[in-house]
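Entry 14. Ran structure prediction on the chain below.
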Amino acid sequence: MSDPLDILRTGFAHAEAYRKGVSARSCGPERDYAEMLESFGEPLPERGQNGEAVISELVQKGEPGLTPMVHPRFFGWVLGGSDPVGVAADWLVSAWGQNAAFHESSPTASALEEIAGRWLLDILDLPGQAAVGFVTGATVANFTALAAARGAILRRSGWDPDADGLFGAPPITVFVGDDAHTSVFSALGYLGLGRNRVCRVRTDAQGRMEPTDLERRVDETAGPKIIIAQAGQINTGAFDPFPEIVNVAREAQAWLHVDGAFGLWARAHPSYNPLTTGVELADSWAVDGHKWLQTPFDSGYTIVRDTDALRQAMQIDASYLPPQTGEDRIPCFLVPELSRRARGVPTWAMLKTLGRDGIEELVDRHCSVAKQISARLDRISGVCVLNEVQLNQIIVEFGASDTTNEQRGMLTEAVITRIRDLGVIFVGGARWKGAWVMRISVICNATGPTEIDAVVNTISSAWADVRANTVKTELSS
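Output, structure tokens:
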């Protein structure tokens, strides 16, 4: 029988070793999914095994299939670097073993959520009376906020969807920018509002919603309305024009929701805050902690101005559950979960550790690195940065301007593949306005100016290799 403390020490030792060596690893998984299935594939054991041995086997077999997302040169997706403070706080969450559903079941977890929620509203400069629900990430944050929106706007029309469902309810029209994130459409599907049954509003070259097209479409539509705007387009980092959108929403008595998974953190820095002017006038917001706040997965926040609307959408009741008294904040009344982790703990720890100036520094550093990378890439022949780098996102296309869109897409994918083969940095690909592009997302806490040369040199080298192979192929054919 394993000593429980020895098991914990074994886990800590392996975690420490991984973090110490991660920056020296190849910036990508060593084995693919099929190989990992084969590695772990075995029948269910008939007899239990030694806990320390199980943990060591997990590490030995599992690490080759890990993508090092905490690596300083990981740029594949918009993911934070799981700061050690947040990781340590999250270990305590698991060790404490709290179900953070109620203030009576876990006073500490509930109090930390309350305080962390206040701090979030402060650092994001959002209405102090808003409710903050701690969820898994922006997908569930969007879902939760839009559930509150659905109920609130239908009750204005005399229908309570939370009590009576949607059969026979007045139809809701949802207006969303043509380049909204996929999580928004997923949330609408979960809510019965339909992924495809939306009014898609025209966007500009950077993915910003065009307010004149929104106004025209809203004016042509009767009935309850929800407008979904965006703070930080996932490819370009662009921000919708919030003041104009707010005016349209107010005139139409529509609920305005903002998907700000990473872009809402721009409000924490005085130089980037102006990009979000007017966003504070919305009705609800979604934002992630496991992006710029660097909490471990999974951590997101749904923020709703009308606390009652959120509570009505998320309410849960049973005789064995404690009732709400006075102004008590009951966590599970604000999110779609009863059994839930104490997600507020790592959020509190990261906000306490970083403070206002630490979050400002992260945003400033990452945006500065992104702009320097972009400027240097744009000087390389055949490399084209397609977006205005306002924040931390860069999208790049490869190939001469006189080549076809299809040819540039093939070259871009070849460069991405070559970069991943080299293992120095990790980048991703995406479809943008009909083009296949390479995405660079600068948001890991370990990333700083010292990584710029490695990024530019690796991309330049990969592009040179692809061009050389292309010429060789053309000559041989």
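Residues 235 and 432 are 8 Å apart (CA to CA). Will compare against last week's run tomorrow.
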